[in-house]
# Entry
Amino acid sequence: MRTAATLLLAGFAAAALAAPSWQAIGENANGNKVFVDSASVKTAKGITTVAYRTELKAGLDTPGGSITSMRSTMQVNCKDMTASGVEVVLYEDEAKGRIFSRNKAQKVEFLKEPAGSSADMVVKHVCKK
# Structure
């Protein structure tokens, strides 16, 4: 019985450690709220990988419902303030894990992000000196 309780508590601790730690960083030019998963920020060889999410102010209608949020992963090169998208997941219901689409980048290509976009805000947040 004690072993089962210990394993159960260890499972909860592992889940808590793996859970995203969303930090609000503001609103983009469209009024969408932007959050960075501070636990996901990792830098290696001058490139920072970061996960972020955007809550859409106005949902995008689809036949299956409305896209209300998205989660993205990107790599950031702070030396030249560019970024490369890794993956974008659009959610019809993020709380229930209902995914509308998931897109992974075919290749790594570092570009300047449009001013005021969610990605631009994340680049500036990750690269602040």
About this structure: Helices lie at 2-18, 118-126. Confidence is low (pLDDT under 50) at residues 1-16. The CA atoms of residues 45 and 77 lie 10 Å apart.
